[in-house]
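#lab-general

N.A. 3:47 PM
ok so I finally got the sequence cleaned up, no stray characters, all 510 residues accounted for. can someone with queue access submit it? mine expired

B.Y. 3:52 PM
send it over

N.A. 3:53 PM
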Amino acid sequence: MFSMSQKDKEHHEYQEHKIELLMEAAVERHKKGQLVAAKMIYEKILFDDPKNITAKHLSGVLASQIKQFDRSLQLISSALALNPNYTEAYNNRGLVFKELKRFDEALEDYNKALTLKPDYADALNNRGVVYREFGRLHEALADYSKAIELVPDYAEVYNNRGTILKDLKRFDEALADFDKATALKPDYAGAYWNKSLYWLLLGDFKTGWPLYEWRWRSEKHIGEPITTSKPLWNNQDSKNVLLWAEQGIGDEIMFASLIPELHAKCAKLIVQCDPRLIPLFKRSFPKDIEFYDKNDLVPESLYEFHIPMGSLAQILRPSIESFAKGAKPYLFCQNEQALELRKRITGNKDSTLIGISWSSKSTIPAARHRNIFLADIARLLNKPDTTLVSLQYGDVSNEIEDLKKHHNIDVIEVSDIDIYNNIDGLSALISACDHVVSTDNATVHLAGALGADTHVLLPVNQDWRWGLESSKSYWYETLKLYRQENLGEWNQTLKNLEMKLATWSINETA
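B.Y. 4:20 PM
back already:
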């Protein structure tokens, strides 16, 4: 029989006590956000005790916090191999899978955690988030409601349930949940941000725009504020003003509709934006505006006030009526390039050119529901004397090849225009087309700003900027909106678009 000497026992007890103290120190630093120090201590524990399950798990959690997701998966999976019933590890690995957009694996881990511990409120909340990604809204709602029953003061769950209720068009209940979240947690930026999007969706700009300022404190916001000692512009006349870009390129294009009105109020206007937009903006806006790459530093000596693009809307777009000022086309392509592209694509033959885009790369939650299969759009639009032109950014050559192989439909890719990087070239390509059909992505904003005849396919959980019911856009007068009736079901939306196709043929024949 195995036996241990007194000296061995003492050494073993010393090592256990030492690791216990190290673990306490690591967890304390981890909770305080001292991640470098916590990481070093976890590594020390694992050097002394390579099979320490808790250290593996928490090291994996820390790795995910610093965006080392592959390392995180390795560590948490190693902990689970040692203890297959480690409920918290399943939940935390699920979070990593969610960050990596591996939603099937995330759901599997949350299900495992909830099998082991059915009253695990964190796992219910996290599974609800994944259910929303899958469009399983009622299941998400059930998970959130159960989590609230278990933990009635769980602010994050009220916020998440509010987003589901908003998607389900249960607006009064959604607002009640957002209000509850901020009542429980008065500094909860994410809930205030969702309230903002709620009011903007409903067209209450007076309430929505001030709440929109919470975006800077919300972890879901894209972009960082600039560092400057200058004050915010607040509608002062005849001042030197820096207008700076934020969020994605589609937002920059949309908020650029405000530039002419701001310019009229300024002694001097400087616009800091995505460098891909500068050639187009220089052509389209007054010549005395100075443009800077948003990645460059603008000397403070050049301006007296500054304002981010999204904040400018609160001043210049206080009501639905005020949008009419900027809804007309305000960007202008190189006409000669547009004519040359049209001639090249058609070969001087009579053909209706339809530019198409079918996918969004947005990283915001549930943005995947904007996407549609290329074949579904192409089969609808493919008619005699019609040519389909890809306006889709990203490498989609395989999708286009599969469309040709399985449906014998051609989509033209203009190889010398990099749709993602060459926005000026893309604007000419859009202008070469007779019509544009697209899901909700940056191409829609560019087409609308150019005044192209544009038809937008919107999912049930549409973005706030499209409003609730109208078939028209208040941002762009040439956009027509086709709204999905049930999440994930595009058939009726496409039928509504198909009815419009007949009018194109009639008008073009006439």
